[in-house]
Design a protein that fits this description.
single chain; alpha+beta; Arc Repressor Mutant, subunit A; 2 domains; three-stranded antiparallel beta sheet; 12 strands; about 30% helix; about 25% strand; disordered C terminus
């Protein structure tokens, strides 16, 4: 077997995946299950030490995630993290996803892992991604999303994390249009929230608020109706600025993405702090 190339290790954990995987239905994954999956994906790496994109067969499939690593990124209690890893290990092993392959009309059932084990004494899990899923986890020049795990570390809802990932596909346009049917599929709500008003309140409306509490995105949405029925939602947000830089030696031009600012912990706490109620009989005036 050929020796795998040396992977460029990022200073901050980054997760990336093909857009098709980014729009996939992850079934009964909890928020913690999904966070474990993303953290493991961040360990794959996507470029070699010279910055060259690597093919799926050149990437390592087996990865270890410790309770300490997960706790450091997602600010979880270290003792509770052992339970989170144990549960996610079993979930990942039995999970298969329905994914389109290339541009064909075929839908493939693809297993996420070929092996998963939990070390209770040492507090870590080891998983091996399948060959098939690696096709959706390797970086390509287009049609993939990339972000730092710290960007989603403060989210408390799976729907918030999923919506944040979705808008990353459209970071250079500042808007995204999704049918209600597609949103229901991506959020994996099944038969829950059958009324649109309940679905909206419990998923993307809440997610927009939480994203805005953590990022200066000004994320909002417009409802698209067919008659009186809402059939789609258009999300609008601040665009990511693109700065083009040319390597003076190679002449190769690269894009550097400058995302809207992530709020500090102090700013987030100020938003979360409840405002004093105006007592009955009192009024507030602005001059």
């Amino acid at each position: 077997m050929d020796k795998l190339p040396r992977i460029l290790n990022s200073k901050t954990p980054k997760t990336y995946k093909n857009n098709k995987l980014n729009n996939a239905n992850f079934g009964d994954f909890t928020h913690n299950d999904y966070q474990v999956f993303l953290h493991l994906v961040s360990k794959i790496g996507g470029v070699d030490e010279f910055g060259k994109y690597l093919q799926p067969e050149q990437l390592k499939r087996e990865h270890i995630l410790t309770a300490k690593d997960f706790s450091d990124v997602f600010n979880t209690d270290i003792h509770n993290t052992y339970r989170i890893l144990n549960k996610a290990c079993r979930k990942l092993m039995k999970t298969d996803l329905t994914l389109p392959r290339n541009e064909s009309s075929e839908l493939w059932q693809i297993n996420v892992c070929s092996m998963a084990k939990y070390n209770k004494k040492e507090g870590y899990i080891t998983i091996e991604f399948t060959d098939r899923i690696m096709l959706y986890l390797s970086q390509v020049r287009q049609k993939f999303v990339l972000y730092n795990l710290k960007e989603i570390a403060n989210f408390n809802s799976l729907y918030t994390t999923r919506l944040y990932e979705l808008i990353q596909e459209f970071k250079d346009t500042g808007y995204m249009l999704k049918s209600v049917e597609k949103l229901r599929d991506i959020f994996a709500v099944g038969d829950s929230f059958k009324l649109y008003s309940d679905f909206k309140r419990r998923t993307f409306d809440h997610a927009c608020k939480e994203i805005n509490n953590n990022h200066e995105l000004n994320l909002g949405y417009e409802e698209i109706k067919e008659g009186r029925k809402v059939i789609a939602v258009k999300f609008v947000f601040k665009k990511t600025r693109i700065h083009k830089v040319t390597n003076q030696k190679t002449g190769i031009e690269k894009n550097f993405y400058i995302k809207p600012k992530q709020k500090t912990k102090k700013e987030i706490k100020q938003i979360a702090r409840p405002k004093p109620d105006i007592l009955e009989g009192q009024m507030s005036f602005q001059e």
